[in-house]
Amino acid sequence: MHKEFLMGNEAIGRAAAAAGVNVVAGYPGTPSTEVLETIAKENDGSIYVEWSVNEKCALEVAAGASYSGARTLVTMKQVGLNVASDPLMSLEYVGVEGGMVVLVADDPGPISSQTEQDTRTFAQYSKVPCFDPSDAKEAYDMLFEAFELSEKYKTPVFFRPTTRVCHAYQSMEVRDYAEFVERRPEGFIKDSSRWVIFPKLSYINHAKIEERNDALGLEFSSYARNKVFEGTTRKGIVSQGISFAIVKDIIDEKTEDKPALLKITTPFPFPEKLACDFLGKVDEVLVVEELDPYIERQLLLVCGKYGLKVNIKGKLTGDVRRSGENTANLVNEYISKFMGWEHASSNEIETPGLPVRPPVLCAGCPHRASFYAVKAAMKGKETIFAGDIGCYTLGNAQPLDMVDTCLCMGAGLGIAQGVGRVKPDTKCFAFVGDSTFFASAITGVVNAVYNQADMTLIVLDNSTTAMTGHQPHPGTGKTMMGEFTDKIDIESILRGIGVRTVVKQNPFEFKKSVEVVKKVADEPGMKAIIFEAPCAVLFKPETPYVVDAGKCVDCRKCIREIGCPGVIIREGKVCIDETLCNGCGFCSQICPCDAILRS
Asked: Considering only the top CATH level, what class is 545-598?
């Protein structure tokens, strides 16, 4: 063993490698991404690692490897679990052979997600055991135990770090390379009575799962990471995850009048006996958790089942906020009110205001040019611009205002088709990135062609998965194992599906782009434009542009219409911020006075 200073996701990735993981598959999504990237970086070639096309594919790849006796890890964020849920629900009934950990990083806040959904609730729904670490070190240690429990009970297990666990750093003891577990799977052994899911098998296995989870609940009641910390009062606090770490820090500062504390690291199956013993020693309990009132509901069930007269407070009673993450200030307020401690509320503490900086498309981003070309081409026409998940969601901001809807990955295609069925005269556009196209948009294209929809698909191809850190995808020609492979061509896929009109265009050629959009949008049926230009972060900036003060008439069209952060006002005059400009030249093409020139 030796000590290292690691980010939570790095610690999880390192633990997986040390635990003898054989196959790792996932789809990038903040806050989970660095787990798989860490394993790929540390990989000596003995671990197979892939960015799968989507989370469903990732889970199915891992399932096949687990059937074959391999230890597997699947990584995703909480909304990715929705995509993976179809195979996961059935996999729990079928079971696994090698240990299988499904890492789902939840995002309280949410900080970078569409939802605040809670994987603990999904664990109960799917009957899959769940581990909930409270810091980076515990995540490292707990992952070994997750693999062992998975193999003991032949079940996939959830591992649920949240954003503040994933991205926090901590010093910890980690295994030396000589201490790594070495696993050599024996391979898939045919047994249709086990691996082929039929209604009768599901019925039999369902009964076994319920019995197993009852046994697991008892086992988790003595699990060392579910801990009771004695207090000096008849009041108690129950917590989990990063909220527990905050609660523990606050309580440790007190020398008297301290509440008892129960830490829950295995929310499902719930450690009922441990909770019952804890509740028997208190009269009143405050539950501090993220996100759902999951533990709170479990405690209420325990009280009802065993006739315990304990007053349970938390989200359901309004004593803890029902949405958002638990900050240190908020938790301090909750506990101080519950315990009757004096507490200076956060609004009494003077802190300097933070500058407001809304997220924007980068200077030189090709998506800005693509959006503006479509906007210019469709000016004066009834349109809908159905957006998607990625950098290009930021096209909703003023002055572009080019994202009318955004639901989930790939949904823009279906939404555009639905709007078109209700209002046939509407020019319907769906925007999708190249990575998202492979992940979840292809079926929408098939649906549009098959059902003869009248719409235009805009593929924003910047040659990477930009939003989550520039991971490779099937269109890049490189795998996460570092192997070069044939690029999967989006145009060929579209034509193979049956899209007759597919046009590739460089969005930085503004006038030509506008002409292309007008021509393609006027054609009937399903058609597509692929705007091809690399992400601004992927290439070395060229010579920045400058504003010729003698030609500039201060119309500020460049400011008002494209919103590039590289075009600014300095001392009342329009100018180019040379530290941000990457020389794309798009602003020069829309300047009516030809006042923007390369320096």
From this structure: alpha beta
